[in-house]
Amino acid sequence: MRQSLCPIIKNKQTATMIDRNNNLFKNIAKMKKITIINILLLLVAITINAQEILVATEEVVNLEPGRHLFIDNYLVAHSDGLKSTLHQPVKLGSPVLKGMGSEDNNFQPYATVLYDEERRRFRIWYGSRKNRDAGVYLSYTESLDGINWEKPYKELFQIYGFGSCVLDEGPAAENPDKRFKMIYWELGRPERRYYNDAAAGVGVAFSPDGLNWVRHLPHPVLPDLWSHSVKGDPNGKGSIKWREYAADIVHATWDPIRNIYVAYVKSWTWPPDEFGYISPTSDGMGRRLASMTTSPDFVHWSKPVRSFVPQPDDFPSIEFYACRAKPRGNQMINFACILNEEVEGTGGSGIGYTVLAVSNDLVHWNRMKEPWLPHSSENQEAADHAVAWVADVITVGDEEFIYYGGYSGGHKNFDDRTINLARLRKDGFLSRDAGKEGGRLLTKVLRMKGGALTVNADVSGVLRLRVLDPSGKPLEGFGEGEVEPITGDVTDHTVTTKGNLASLAGRPVRLEFFLRDAEFYGFELHETR
After folding, report:
1. pLDDT value at 33 more than 60
2. Backbone phi, psi, residue 361, to 5°
3. How far apart are the C-alpha atoms of 330 and 256, rounded to whole Å?
């Protein structure tokens, strides 16, 4: 006889108890079912709204008209199937200005080059010196092509220091007498040594035409802190205040996004062994760093704060000799000059090269380690065999003209310092590249100003663009088949759309680029085109 799996009900009381338990189990099951359904509905709601929640919390990047590049990931939300390629400029091969004892008498690696649109001429300001016993002058000459410069040059005024960084505010300058601005470093009391109360510091001067200059007084505009250095302190110790000093290399630019002048200056470690290494050419003061100072009017400057210091993955003896900054879109590109005194050149120790760094807030920098403008280490006859430090970068048509100081010997050689030229595609510093398999770049949420858009790309295949809302949905007039595909090698491909690009101004959107067999450098927003 098969045994029942159910217990034998022995009496009515027991049966009633079992019925109650069964009803309880049924109610619990119903409650669980309802709870599970609610949870599932909640999960569905979360899934549906997840992207919207993400968009709501994502930072929107406001873009002004200008050239916006993809040197780093500041504008990039996602990138698939693309590789980044750093593009080094092509060197001319011979100096455009020769060193001391030549007809140019260039003395330092600093120079400013501007292009006069009205006169269609290049203008250069640089430091000249006829020989080691002669004075240093701010000198000037012009050129029709940026390569061949007129002789003889003009000595504008004697400078008891270094620097030739000139800014031009253009014909619409608020004060025509101060249209041209210059920042430099010199001794206010040149009869004294720099560490002996010589008023040694950053100064500024103004000019209506770039030729006739008036120094601003009092000098310096940033305080002389040499008494806080180990050289100026009678006890040979110095103080932490020395970290705030703006030393003898200075370059400035105008930041149109933040509406301020920004200058990058050489600074020093304190104590000298703050980062371990002490440079053999520092006179015991440590190693060279780079700091930043800002000004609303080119006269009143903020306390310098450090921009570049050694990082754990740098080589142990790295020093930052100078920085030349140029704004691009929302970002600042810095051409950071690297010095290594532990490598011998043909004429002594000290080699140098230039790397790229980029920042979207002037404080946090993404600095590359690979040389962008390397010195010509394999060619002992080259003018830049030992050193290649960027002096200035200007856009000329579809190219960047990169003027740089070249040394054939070591860092402390003075007889062989020349100004050289290298050339690069306009904004061609770094590209996002796709092969035959293709790739995709999706921007962060942008709020753009402007009524037209151009793209800088070398496209042997095709480049396609869609404009999306923040959640990723194509906007009407900017979706598949509504934006003309881009082909060819042009620095300013015009983006043609079915929709009106001006209607996007102020709206949060994403740009989605699809590439195949293409090098993509960036895009430019225009007020109109």
Report:
1. no
2. -140, 5
3. 9
- Give the E-state strand segments of 73-105 in sequence order: 76-80, 83-86, 90-91
Cα–Cα distance for residue pair 174/169, rounded to 1 Å:
8
Handedness of CA 63, 67, 68, 72 (dihedral sign): negative
Tally of residues, the chain: 529
What pLDDT was estimated at residue 58?
Answer: 77
pTM of the model: 0.89
Cα separation, 397 vs 415, whole angstroms: 34
DSSP lists the bridge partners of residue 518 as: 434, 459
Q: Is the Cβ–Cβ distance between 112 and 392 less than 8 Å?
A: yes
* 341 neighbors 318 (Cβ within 8 angstroms): no
User: CATH homologous superfamily for 90-425?
Assistant: Glycosyl hydrolase domain; family 43 (2.115.10.20)
Q: What is the DSSP letter of 198?
A: -
Tokens of 401: 């003209």
User: Average pLDDT, stretch 404-421?
Assistant: 93
d(CA 358, CA 18): 76
For residues 159 and 184, the answer to whether their CB atoms sit within 8 Å is yes
Burial class (CB in 10 A: 0-12, 13-18, 19+), 353: buried
pLDDT of residue 212: 98
Distance from C-alpha of 111 to C-alpha of 125, rounded to nearest angstrom? 6
Name the strand (E) or helix (H) holding 137: strand 137-143
Helix (H, G, I), strand (E, B) or coil at 491: strand
ω before 310 within 30° of 0 (cis)? no
CATH T-level topology, domain 58-86+430-526: Jelly Rolls (2.60.120)
Nearby residues of 317 by Cβ (< 8 Å), 6 or more positions away: 277, 279, 287, 340, 341, 342
Q: CA 207, CA 167: separation in Å to the nearest integer?
A: 10
Q: How far apart are CA 12 and CA 15, in angstroms?
A: 5
pLDDT tens-digit readout, 87-108: 999 999 999 999 999 999 999 9
**Domain range annotation of the chain:** 1-57, 58-86+430-526, 90-425
Tokens of 442: 């999706």
203 close to 265: Cβ distance less than 8 angstroms: no
Is the link from the previous residue into 271 a cis peptide, with omega within 30 of 0? yes
Residue 8 has what DSSP assignment? P
